[in-house]
Amino acid sequence: MKILVCGYNGQVAQALQKHLAGLGELHVLGHQQLDLAAPEALRTTLRQLAPGLIINAAAYTAVDQAEQEPERAFAINAEGPRVLAEEAEELGAPLIHFSTDYVFDGHKAKPYTEDDKPNPLSVYGQSKLAGEQAIAAVNGKHLILRTSWVYSLHGRNFLLTMQRLLQEKPQLRVVDDQIGAPTWATSLASSTRLLIERWQSGQAGAWGTYHLTAQGETSWFGFAQAISELLKARGVPCAELLPIPSREYPTPARRPLNSRLDCSRLAQEWQVSLPHWQQALIDCLK
Ligand SMILES: NC(=O)c1ccc[n+]([C@@H]2O[C@H](COP(=O)([O-])OP(=O)(O)OC[C@H]3O[C@@H](n4cnc5c(N)ncnc54)[C@H](OP(=O)(O)O)[C@@H]3O)[C@@H](O)[C@H]2O)c1
Hints:
The protein is an alpha/beta fold and 286 residues long. The chain has helices spanning 11-19, 39-49, 70-91, 123-138, 158-168, 185-200, 220-233, 264-270, 277-285, and strands at 2-6, 25-29, 53-56, 95-100, 142-147, 150-151, 171-175, 179-180, 183-184, 208-211, 218-219, 240-244. It starts with a strand and ends with a helix. The relative contact order is 0.16.
């Protein structure tokens, strides 16, 4: 079976490339070969390749920049995924698509379930929600996996930024009122492999939208503290960390204060769940 992974240099796409080996004939295509913002060329490539499974790990992920270029964000995060879903349906191929906690406004006091109504605060969140809706409307075999706070040793993310700043600065102010689950791209890739194996062996759960993040929760400040502790344990001197509220760190895009996603539905339906975020961070930095 041909497996198409959209995204090449991305955190999740890179992890998938490593972790899906042996499951099929893997085609990992970056934006130069497969541009989600060019629907006609996208259709042509999909028809030529005719994959038996499509995994979309590509997205417009520049959350603040998206406020300035909503058309591009919607083209990549909504129109592209709609074409992927339509072509997947034509091919009879399942589509696995990643989405985000930023589809929610964060006002709920508890972790969000898949039944909660999305209400994105940012253009990025709106464009990702539109992508989810477009895929669901096609109504083919699909898994929309909403995740949060993705990091890896590759690309641009909070872990790599903190590692650098903790060693460059004497003091660092980090937001402590946004709560979520930092999720390692490698954990997402391993669980995606499990989902594919369940489907391939005829043990698939129901298709649809699911939450998939690391277990546990913390704030960005708590995540920074954990990174700092692990660096200090290796003898690396680190900046002093100071907690601040979001209002003291204004950004062009608003972020939800509560990013916690309840992942129990995927555990029940597909028997897939991720390790605790603290364990994953230790494993990532090993
Ligand atoms: N990062 C997070 O904190 C976070 C949180 C929640 C959900 N998510 C979701 O998780 C998924 C993976 O995120 P990630 O962190 O791995 O993203 P990432 O590291 O920013 O990578 C995104 C990739 O998308 C590709 N891309 C951008 N524009 C494209 C276009 N026009 N056509 C085709 N590909 C294009 C780029 O591909 P190439 O450079 O490879 O060509 C880029 O490497 C996304 O759906 C994202 O929305 C991420």
